[in-house]
Amino acid sequence: MAGRLPDAEWQHRDGLKKVLATLNDFDGGPRYVGGAVRDTLLGLPVSDVDIATTLLPLDVIDRLEAGGIKAIPTGIDHGTVTAAIDGNNYEITTLRRDVATDGRRATVAFSTDWQEDAARRDFTINALYADPESGEIFDYFNGLADLAAQKLRFIGDANQRIAEDFLRILRYFRFLARYGRGELDAEAVVACAKGAHGLTALSRERIAQELTRILGLIDPVASVELMISNGIFSPFLPELSDSAANDLRRLVTREAQCGQPISLPARYLTLLTCDAAAVDKVAARLKLSNRMREGFARRLAAPAPKPHNVRKIAYRADIETARDVTMLYACDSDVQQCLLRLEQWKSPTLSIKGGALIAMGLPAGPLVAKTLRAIETVWISEDFPDAERQHDIAVQNVKAALSAIRKV
Ligand code: ATP
Ligand code: MG
After folding, report:
1. Which of 86, 142, 308, 370 could form a disulfide with 14 if both were Cys (CB 3.0 to 4.6 A apart)?
2. Using CA positions, which residue lies closest to atom 27 of ligand 1?
3. Residue 1 C-alpha to ligand 1 middle, in angstroms?
4. Which atom in ligand 1 lies closest to the alpha carbon of residue 34?
């Protein structure tokens, strides 16, 4: 693994050079840290850029403001200030060490010692720093070797690092899914299992946020299997379905085979039972968004997907729901056919309206809406035929409705 940071797109983002220049100090300049360094070394795209500095947070704010850059005190108690410039945000964090921890949050002391700052970070591959000018990498805990070996390792003793902050358990499995193709650190997994009870100390939102990130990865299967077999879900998701591992594996395999995008509601549903009320209870407890909860409900209310009814599901709910239930619940031999029926298909609208039925002789009133619903049902069962056929269906249904009235 190279000891120098290669050039990458993000290093040329608007405003970054100006932010870095503003933070230059006698003690030495700022350094890139965390995901930006790690992912650039791996040749992966970088989303957010984290910067570490020896300057104190208030000094950071003063300097940014003096340079005409907006400074947001995002997490000022923990030393984090966000610089907002030219449409980009850069997170700037003062070097620090944790002086007291309770498994949820830390009391910190600011520092000017880079190694000390590295030591409070979670994994060796997350504690790599780079000098923005020279690209020199600073690696205090053999992160480069671990990155090359695709090995996820806690900095220091895993048990202790987990007791300081239980969220690191979930971060462990998230980063394992992303970077841990190499030898598994069995001791770290045991430490996660032992510490799992501590997850109950965390807020449901933080747990759900990490779980969502894990489930949103391209291939979280091996990591989630490891979480299941080590009892990581038990403290916050005792409702985990017995077939969760198999169902998730099947979904992820299908997504890859069919070139379908990752769907979070579908990924979540593999972990849960098919009982809508039970799923909603879990979703409420994890404080998942209403949008997600409604998404679960629509998917669980849909009938078993088959090529002949998959458009009907899409029409009654939406295309994403139809696609997800196909990926989740269709039998192997139906999946391709169902997806094909949804591809480039837009949910149509019935062109016949109430006025047309009245023009055909139906009296205005509740019978119009009732007849329209009957027409819609036939139209759906005939796979949404065009306006001409809709007219014929309407004529038949108006006739039937009129003769029913006459009989009364
Ligand atoms: P990505 O943003 O791509 O998911 P990242 O490594 O940048 O990955 P962040 O969550 O943005 O992850 O955190 C930035 C850095 O802060 C991490 O690389 C790590 O060094 C440190 N960090 C974040 N959360 C923790 C934590 N709970 N315990 C210890 N260090 C942490
Ligand atoms: Mg990051």
Report:
1. 86
2. 168
3. 21
4. 18
Which tokens sit at 144? 């480069």
Of 126, 149, 172, which marks where a domain is finished? 149
Q: Which residues are near ligand 1 (CB < 6 Å)?
A: 34-35, 48, 50, 121-122, 126-127, 165, 167-168, 171
pLDDT value, residue 377: 95
Determine the atom of ligand 1 nearest the C-alpha atom of 167. 27
Nearest alpha carbon to residue 51 among 75, 77, 80, 74:
80
Ligand 1: which atom is nearest the Cα of residue 168?
27
Domain count along the chain: 4
**Residue 1 has what pLDDT?**
54
Q: Which tokens hold the place of 393?
A: 């269906």
Query: Structural domain of residue 126, as residue ranges?
Result: 1-149
Which of 27-31, 107-111, 167-171 is least confident?
27-31
Task: For ligand 1, atom 30, name the residue with the nearest CA.
Answer: 121
The residue out of 93, 116, 149 marking a domain boundary is 149
Do 3 and 145 fall within a single domain?
Answer: yes
Give the predicted TM-score (pTM) of the model: 0.93
Average pLDDT over residues 289-308: 97
Q: How far is the CA of 126 from the centre of ligand 1 (A)?
A: 7
| 406 has pLDDT over 90 | no
| C-beta neighbour count of 331 within 10 angstroms | 10
pLDDT for the residue numbered 3: 79
Listed residue (260, 230, 246, 254) closest to 342, CA to CA: 260
**Are 180 and 313 in the same domain?**
no
Same domain? For 175 and 233 the reply is yes
Instruction: Kindly report, residue by residue over 200-212, the tens digit of the pLDDT.
Output: 999 999 999 999 9
Instruction: Pick the residue whose CA is nearest to atom 1 on ligand 1.
Output: 35
